Amino acid sequence: LEGGRAEDVALVMEPLHNSDVGDVLEQLDAAERVALVRSLGDLFDFSALTEVDESIRLEIMQALPNAEIARGVAELDNDDAVYLLEDLEQEDRDEILSALPTFERLALKRSLDFPEDSAGRRMQTEFIAIPPFWTVGQVIDYLRTEKDLPDEFYQLYVVDAAYKVLGTLPLDKFLRSARAIKIDTIMNTNFVLIDAEQDQEEAARSFERYDLVEVGVVDESGRLVGVLTIDDIVDVIQEEAEEDIRFMAGVGDEDVSDTTVDTVRSRVPWLVINLFTAVAVSFVIGLFDATIEQMVALAVLMPIVASMGGNAGAQTMTVTVRALAMRELDGGRLRRLIRREMVVGLANGVIFAILIGIVTGLRYGDVQLGIVIGLAMVINMIVAGTFGILIPLTLDKLKADPAIASAVFVTTITDVVGFFAFLGIAGLWFGLF
Amino acid sequence: LEGGRAEDVALVMEPLHNSDVGDVLEQLDAAERVALVRSLGDLFDFSALTEVDESIRLEIMQALPNAEIARGVAELDNDDAVYLLEDLEQEDRDEILSALPTFERLALKRSLDFPEDSAGRRMQTEFIAIPPFWTVGQVIDYLRTEKDLPDEFYQLYVVDAAYKVLGTLPLDKFLRSARAIKIDTIMNTNFVLIDAEQDQEEAARSFERYDLVEVGVVDESGRLVGVLTIDDIVDVIQEEAEEDIRFMAGVGDEDVSDTTVDTVRSRVPWLVINLFTAVAVSFVIGLFDATIEQMVALAVLMPIVASMGGNAGAQTMTVTVRALAMRELDGGRLRRLIRREMVVGLANGVIFAILIGIVTGLRYGDVQLGIVIGLAMVINMIVAGTFGILIPLTLDKLKADPAIASAVFVTTITDVVGFFAFLGIAGLWFGLF
Fold first, then answer.
1. Which of A33, A312, A408, B160 has the fewest other C-beta atoms within 10 Å?
2. Is A170 in contact with A210 (CB distance < 8 Å)?
3. Architecture of domain B6-114
4. CA-CA distance, A274 to B414, in Å (whole number)?
5. pLDDT (tens digit, 9 = 90+) per residue, B68-77?
6. Which residues of A touch B285 (CB under 8 A)?
7. Residues B28-51: what's their mean pLDDT?
8. Cα B352 versus chain centre, distance
């Protein structure tokens, strides 16, 4: 591919959707990617860069001269342009911005002034605003003659002179109305708006909840400054669920295409934390080394109690973390969930105490050892249920992301309690202290 | 609320969006829910039931007489009706269907004939199909006079006499065209269609990839039979990521509002599997009981090696499972990922071997013990990286869902290898066999 002539490459790439171009870029090696983009020159549509992993995007953009990026960015929708620029170094960003036409530069600057991950960052600043006193016919004529319209739009915004939203008008409803009808008689006056400072995840909640396709974004003075469309929000929903999965497993903000060094850097902190807790847990075991020395079966059996508690805790924790993320826990539902998880912990404890008690009793021909491990299991399962719900709740109350830190706390507690309960009860029961 | 008069309740509930009605239902107790629905009678909009957890939906629908459900379902869009009916018992479903008007019944039956979780199940059967030879003006007049249009639509479908799709026409593009223009000169001829038999997750991939808002669904003969809209797909995307999180934690298809018994039933199978593997792992430890008896520090330290391997394995596994779910792994990228994870495993192994080696050496004043645990750590980290990627890949090749079963295999392997390597190397090194 790369050995050939640039025109041939352009010919092949031209009809592809930008997602497909993104795919092609991800398949290539680092050097080939930049070569491909450069050989396409003006024909390269920068929107393809919104479809590739962050590390690849940054790598390509760093390899390109800022003037070339400015030319590519100038042709993008405002929201795509912000998406490409927001991760760049301040210096590169300013250089690119200053190379853009005034109008685009100001619009981009305003979007970039909103906090990271806010609705203002994700919004598109092109939208169609119409006055309430126009008729359907006037609006249709306006749409047919006006050249500078957004690429895609699903509703019209009815605004007053200060750009305060008076109503919204979905295209399907608009289309069904006769030319003579006044806009303010058919517009929806019961509409949702989103604050530009609002977090994009909150905005995504509104889309899901009210089945929105497009929503107006207003600044603090209530002025319509942009719109969010569902295609941006689909990415937010995807990313958010993705984030929870990764955080629970202790994987940072990592892509399949990250380099080895970046990957190690993203994973080591979590493993270091885990090393600390594992060493701490081993100190708990160390308290009982004399007990273990007298009865080595305890060392053989103790990981079972800890592992079962860890898994049961992870189950409760996962349900709680996701319910918190989906804002499903308020008053009545929260109390019911806590009550349920306690009972589930007790029930699991009894079920698995009996099972492991029987298995252990048969394996060692020792009923008492079976009773001891059963007791430890009941305790650890109840602890797992209780902390599996309390830890994410507490982190959420403390404004920490429960997905990030819950797992380490829960497993540490179930490990400590598992080993302590089993070795402690065994020591007392068999008089080994 | 429930003590009062039905009209008052209706008055309060009436202006609420169906998501909010769903929320109110979830907040109530089981008995109150049914009482509320019944007291609202005809005023209850059954679409609120699409917004509540499955267990609550089934509970309410089982408590209502089928005739009442039929009346409520008749007023719903086809896709919402299918969503409510698909989980009912065959018998109830047939009774409700037979109480519906013929046209609705046939449309619902056809949707229900498609496989579960297919695009055909999720699609809406109302759409706007127009012939290619109409003009924009004719279409506008048709839309203005025709009463029986879908509630919401974002594009028009240009079809031939056999309902084969010739092109699509987004409303925004349509609106910008003059009345005299012929439809076939402005329609998009480069469009995406979805097969009704296709899995809804595949359909969701197309929406994300091509930033779709609405897409036509065709049957095996290529005839347009319905449309999928983004609001249904947002739910699919949400559910799918949700499923992976839950499956990885061994939580089944479970909601916050499930009963205690259902919750126990959903979680016990996973814990039973974990019990089996934990017992199997303990047999591995049991092989070394004489070794442990001679050097009890081994029992104190061994969970560290297993736990670090388990966490590193979970990291690799999570990245792989998600990459598989997002279809990000093909040829070049897969090879790069495997190579990267091996190197990451080795790097993590070296880093944590040194750390734990130093900690152990200092704690026990025994350099040799530090070397032994370091060696075991390197081995287990490499194993974790290797199996963290190979197990999900193999499950995917075998057409099993990697999210469900990967975790149990990976942790069992890292536990077995962790204990075996550490105790085995220690036994050889210190001559304890």
1. B160
2. no
3. Alpha Horseshoe (1.25)
4. 15
5. 888 888 888 8
6. 299-300, 303
7. 82
8. 35
User: Which residues 209-238 of chain B have a CB within 8 Å of chain A?
Assistant: 209-211, 213, 230-231, 233-235, 237-238
More confident residue, B2 or A76: A76
- What one-character DSSP code corresponds to residue B430? T
B positions 35-64 inside 8 Å of A (CB)? none
Please give the Cα distance from A144 to B174 (Å, whole number).
10
**Which B residues 298-317 touch A at CB under 8 Å?**
299-304, 306-308, 311-312, 314-315, 317
- Residue scoring higher pLDDT (A243 or A274): A274
Which DSSP symbol is given to B47?
Answer: G
| CA distances (Å), origin A250, targets A303, B312, B313 | 22, 9, 11
Cα(A425)–Cα(A166) distance, integer angstroms: 70
A303 with B301: Cβ contact below 8 A: no
Element containing residue B169 per DSSP (H, E):
strand B165-170
Query: For residues B412 and B407, what is the distance between their CA atoms, to the nearest angstrom?
Result: 8
What is the CATH code for A129-242? Answer: 3.10.580.10
Chain B residues within 8 A of A263 when measuring between CB atoms: 340, 344
Sort B131 into a burial class: Cβ within 10 Å, 0-12 / 13-18 / 19+. Answer: middle
Structure tokens at A135: 């008729």
Q: Which tokens hold the place of A88?
A: 């760049």
Contact state of A275 with B331 under an 8 Å Cβ cutoff: no
| Residue-range domain boundaries for chain A | 6-115, 129-242, 260-429
Q: Which listed CATH number (3.40.50, 1.10.10, 1.10.3470, 1.25.60) goes with A6-115? A: 1.25.60
Q: What class has domain B129-229?
A: alpha beta
Tokens encoding A59: 């790598």
- In our burial notation (b when 16+ CB lie closer than 10 A, e otherwise), range A348-374 reads bbebbbebbbebbbebbeeeebbbbbb
- Number of Cβ pairs closer than 8 Å across A and B? 298
In the stretch 173-202 of chain B, residues with CB closer than 8 A to chain A read: 174-178
Class of the B260-429 domain? mainly alpha
